[in-house]
Design brief:
The chain is mainly alpha-helical. It has a domain of about 250 residues: Photosynthetic Reaction Center, subunit C, domain 2. About 35% of the residues lie in helices and about 0% in strands. It is globular and about 85 Å long.
Length: about 350
């Protein structure tokens, strides 16, 4: 006898449970795409404009941990002989006392090369020797740091920067860039990809141009999407130029961990009147990056060895991510520079190329 005939419901119970199980599995799959815990929204612009930043506390905690500044070594004071009197070949920090000078050197070792220590820059035991390229670069980077803190306060304000802002305990900052080396037309079956159409982390895995830095953070191309007047007389901004602009904006958004509304009012992206103050800060930041790349990084081309250069033979350069590293303020706004007043002002103003 077929036992199902004795219990009509049995014929549907198994399929019913099967559908219930399937529904639970599908629900779990759907929910895995949901963020946990629930994201929080923070108003970043004028009320009623929808200009908010959305943060997930779980992800924000990871970023916060990565942006903790190191504890500063207490200052020994300015008493005693000067570094230029006690040591040989001190070219830019000779006005510091021996104690202040050594404190900064130890701090720089911890900021940049904690594993190698002094030997990363110095040909030990001959500290005055300049034969290592790292020492030549480090000296120039001290001048760059002083220049940023003294002359780019519209961007860094009173917070300032130190070597740790970019290096985070690594000899080479983890966010640098080189000029791209696009393949010539016909070099493969894809043809000429025009420096884009290859998903790149630089532009958040989009097909936008993967070197949006050369036009804007080295050259002085106009950062535009469209012109202020209609064709044919006013709009001379090409679609290609718009793609480069979108590439730079995508990088900035990722580098700072924010979305477009952090700097823009989406009612009109190009209108400055209703934009939040952060847009002005970002405007100065773009010009600061261009200034630093032109006057401090490019000038070190001869000092860098071949293995530290890019595919076209250029030196590493900086962009927004070099300092910010996912935080809208580097190190979450920790004012490290105040603990090192020798990094706040250059002793001698270097010759510079004007950044427009």
């Amino acid at each position: 006898m077929n036992m199902h005939t004795l219990n009509p419901s049995a014929s549907v119970s198994t399929p019913s449970r099967w559908w219930q199980t399937l529904a639970l599995v599908l629900s779990a799959l759907v929910l895995t795409a949901c963020e946990r815990p629930s994201p929080e929204s923070v108003q970043s612009g004028y009320r009623g404009t929808g200009m908010v930043q959305v943060y997930n506390a779980r992800l924000l905690e990871v970023k916060t941990e990565k942006n903790q500044p190191p504890v500063a070594i207490p200052s020994p004071g300015s008493d005693g002989p000067k570094a230029a009197q006690a040591y040989k070949n001190v070219k830019i920090l000779g006005h510091l006392s021996v104690g202040e000078f050594n404190r900064l050197m130890v701090s720089m070792s911890n900021w940049v090369a904690p594993q190698e220590g002094c030997a990363y820059c110095h040909a030990l035991p001959n500290f005055e020797d300049d034969s290592k390229y790292t020492k030549v670069v480090a000296r120039r980077m001290i001048e760059m740091t002083q220049h940023i803190n003294a002359d780019w306060q519209p961007h860094v304000a009173q917070t300032g920067v130190t070597c740790y802002t970019c290096h985070r305990g690594e000899p080479v900052p983890n966010a640098i860039w080189f000029k791209s080396n696009p393949q010539p037309y016909g070099s493969n079956f894809m043809g000429d990809k025009a420096g884009q159409n290859t998903p790149s982390p630089v532009v958040n895995l989009s097909s936008l141009p993967n070197d949006p830095f050369t036009p804007f953070l080295l050259d002085d191309q106009k950062i535009r999407v469209n012109g202020p007047t209609p064709l044919p007389s006013g709009n001379r901004q090409s679609i290609k130029q718009a793609e480069w602009t979108y590439g730079l904006m995508t990088h900035m958004s990722t580098a700072l961990g924010v979305n477009c509304t952090y700097c823009h009012n989406t009612q009109s992206f190009q209108n400055w009147t209703n934009s939040p103050p952060q847009r002005v800060t970002a405007w100065h930041g773009i010009r600061m990056a261009r200034d630093l790349n032109l006057n401090y990084m490019e000038s070190l081309t001869e000092a860098f060895p071949a293995h530290r250069k890019g595919p076209t033979g250029d030196v590493p350069k900086l962009n927004c991510a070099t300092c910010h590293q996912g935080a809208y303020k580097p190190l979450n706004g920790a004012p490290m520079a105040k603990d090192f007043p020798e990094l706040l002002k250059p002793a001698v103003t270097p010759t510079k190329v004007a950044a427009k």
